[in-house]
């Protein structure tokens, strides 16, 4: 078959490869979510006609049937946060797809001490026997996709190296190689240290859970212990019911897709400045009747979407209003009008509370 015929055949098939790539990406994304493996990015592409033509023309390459021999007519890249997730993703692929080949030459273990390069795991996969029988996948029987799995840092190294046009060690002028050796080592070390930080985070969480489950609130206050406390505070449900009766909505606003957004870190940072060191001190600070304050700051006639931790944030502001300012709230992401309404409402509520106490005495 002539080059013209092969290119024309691929041109006709390419829409199928585009659809196959998109569907495979969607499937991988769903499978990783089920297994609890977080990804920074999953991206893919079907090879363009121009790229296909260029590849089969490369010197030293000879293909009897490029459409069957080229492994990357569909390509997918999976970028994860942690180094040990690379292997988890590879194991998932091997359990859900037919792995035709797996290239390990780009793994750190394959480099000698005086080498550097971009690190990732490459696999070529196709649909396994069970999936290719399904009606929605039947059209893609025999299609293959080259999949790269990298960490965020490995991807950064590859991107910078590509920008420098240093794809191979031989491309680098000798006088620059030592700097790149050192940089490559730092990237690898950082990947390992991120795993260590994650493990220490898990240890801190386990200690906080054990203490709080046994009623011990003398736990150092940080974003981790605050999150665990919020899930166990016996008065939180009553607080939510009160706020909902006022008109607060415990949900994310329409169009807000940031699933990881929360205020635990911000609250912990405020507590550090306020001298609140333990969960016990925090609980003591927010344990008061906040009904009049919460009514005062609610924007009449408007929805206010809040989360459970934001409710705790509001209680902390009212409890220590003398040490909060509008500018401080704006600096951590509040809208100016909302910050002003809450600060002024808290100050007014504090004045009325003091007057009421004065009359009683």
Would you kindly provide a written description of the structure presented here, covering whatever features stand out?
This protein is an alpha/beta fold and 361 residues long. Helices cover 57% and strands 12% of the residues. The chain has 15 helices and seven strands. Strands 1-2-5-4-3 form a five-stranded mixed beta sheet. Strands 6-7 form a two-stranded parallel ribbon. About 2% of the residues have low confidence.
What keyword list fits this structure?
361 residues; alpha/beta; five-stranded mixed sheet
Strand and helix map with partners:
Layout: H1 3-34, E1 39-46, H2 49-57, H3 66-69, E2 74-80, H4 83-96, E3 97-103, E4 121-127, H5 129-132, E5 144-151, H6 152-164, H7 174-213, H8 223-230, H9 236-246, E6 248-250, H10 264-274, H11 279-286, H12 291-297, E7 304-306, H13 308-319, H14 326-331, H15 336-360
Parallel strand pairs: 2-5, 6-7
Antiparallel strand pairs: 1-2, 3-4, 4-5
Helix pairs in contact: 1-2, 7-8, 8-10, 12-15
Task: Round the Cα radius of gyration to an integer and report it.
Answer: 28 Å
Spatial order of the strands forming the largest sheet: 1-2-5-4-3
Order of helices and strands: HEHHEHEEHEHHHHEHHHEHHH
Mean pLDDT: 88
